[in-house]
Amino acid sequence: RGVPIIAFTGNLDSRLAHMSDCVIDTGVEKEACGLGLAPTASTTATLAVGDALAVVLLELKDFSEKDFRRNHPSGSLGERLKIQVREVMITGSKIPVVTTGTLVRDAIREMDSKGLGAVLVVDDSGGLKGIFTDGDVRRTFIRWGLDGLARDGLEAQSIGEMRIDEIMTQQPKFISPDVLAADALAIMEEHLITVLPVIELDGRLCGIVHLHDLLGKGEFKFLV
């Protein structure tokens, strides 16, 4: 798949060595085993070189305690859910968001490009006004017909040309960045939703958290 292979081996002429992009020699003169057969000194050498390489990468990547906790949450979902929402939420340009007045077709494009199954709607000051999900898309077409035309009396209007304000869900559920991830998960389970907008105390949108990020299957998993 194009992933570089780095091999630790004491046999530079081995099949593994020839198949690897980079080979690190961990060979030893002899094993500590009295028979010279059981891997003893060679395994110790491999562990030592591996640890040394890991430490170097930690320094080069400026790897912090926060990064370590995100990638090694004590091997349990319980430990993961003890952290705050701000540590797992999606922020910045990765948030699927449009402003009020945006055409539905453009809102759907934004939703599709960010891949979270929803788009948030904010006003000019960044205040959350609503949410539009992929489920809302389906329900909209079911309500107004699969031809994509919303009918008002004798006139028909393309759903894509409507304003997102007309069909978004207003006053959606949201959460603070300072609450526990477990609380976010509880809200999702109670209301059968998979995303939650994250709002600062001043009412401005600062992020979005997805169910997969709480469970370690999305952005949360690939931060480093």
From TrEMBL:
<dbReference type="GO" id="GO:0097367">
    <property type="term" value="F:carbohydrate derivative binding"/>
</dbReference>
<dbReference type="Pfam" id="PF01380">
    <property type="entry name" value="SIS"/>
</dbReference>
<protein>
    <submittedName>
        <fullName>CBS domain-containing protein</fullName>
    </submittedName>
</protein>
<dbReference type="InterPro" id="IPR001347">
    <property type="entry name" value="SIS_dom"/>
</dbReference>
<dbReference type="InterPro" id="IPR046348">
    <property type="entry name" value="SIS_dom_sf"/>
</dbReference>
<dbReference type="InterPro" id="IPR050986">
    <property type="entry name" value="GutQ/KpsF_isomerases"/>
</dbReference>
<feature type="domain" description="CBS">
    <location>
        <begin position="89"/>
        <end position="151"/>
    </location>
</feature>
<dbReference type="InterPro" id="IPR046342">
    <property type="entry name" value="CBS_dom_sf"/>
</dbReference>
<feature type="domain" description="CBS">
    <location>
        <begin position="168"/>
        <end position="224"/>
    </location>
</feature>
<dbReference type="GO" id="GO:1901135">
    <property type="term" value="P:carbohydrate derivative metabolic process"/>
</dbReference>
<keyword id="KW-0129">CBS domain</keyword>
<dbReference type="Pfam" id="PF00571">
    <property type="entry name" value="CBS"/>
</dbReference>
<dbReference type="InterPro" id="IPR000644">
    <property type="entry name" value="CBS_dom"/>
</dbReference>
